[in-house]
Design goal:
- The protein is built from three helices and seven strands; from the N terminus they run H-E-E-E-E-H-E-H-E-E.
- The chain is α+β, with helices and mostly antiparallel strands.
- The protein has a domain of about 100 residues: 60s Ribosomal Protein L30, Chain: A.
- The strands form two sheets. It has a five-stranded mixed beta sheet with strand order 1-2-7-5-6. Strands 3-4 form a two-stranded antiparallel ribbon.
- The longest helix has 22 residues.
- The protein is globular.
- The two termini are about 20 Å apart.
């Protein structure tokens, strides 16, 4: 397997996006000791918010899963940038946080979050396996359905 994250994502038929820029006074990621913390990523298509709405109201479970995958693709874009596209620097994915804008009655957050989890494992192999939190929230930035953040362990 290639040590280029860009090549691995391309092998899945996807393209890593150019890392988005922060919308306020924060940064995309921080490396502290041997950990990389990546800020929340929303689903973007050509730099514009995608999958706007809430699960259980205007969006289906399938659309939510696609939104989670797209947000995770943005997370991988940030990871690639932070590592200089060199996956040999990655030990493993520690944690994935998936926030799902949903109605009070919606209970399939874990199924929606699988879109993000599956992409990480498909792109990173065993290095993509992680612990995860999937949380339903009332709203997210730009009205999108999903936001994903991550913590990764790096080589010392």
């Amino acid at each position: 397997m290639s040590d280029s994250l860009r090549e691995r994502v391309q092998a899945l038929g996807l393209t890593l996006p150019t890392p988005s820029q922060p919308a306020a006074k924060y940064i995309n990621y921080v490396i502290s000791a041997n950990q990389l913390f990546v800020s929340g990523q929303i689903p973007l298509v050509e730099g514009q918010p995608a999958y706007v709405g809430r699960l259980g109201e205007s969006l289906s479970d399938e659309e939510g899963t696609q939104a989670a995958e797209l947000a995770a693709l943005g997370l991988l874009g940030q990871l690639s940038h932070a590592l200089g596209d060199d996956l040999s620097r990655l030990v493993h994915t520690v944690r994935l946080g998936v926030f799902i804008a949903s109605s009070a009655e919606f209970t399939h957050q874990s199924a929606v979050a699988n879109g993000a989890s599956n992409l990480l494992v498909n792109a990173l192999g065993d290095k993509g396996r992680h612990v995860r939190t999937a949380v339903g929230v009332a709203s997210l930035p730009a009205g999108v359905a999903v936001e994903v953040d991550g913590i990764f362990e790096l080589q010392p």
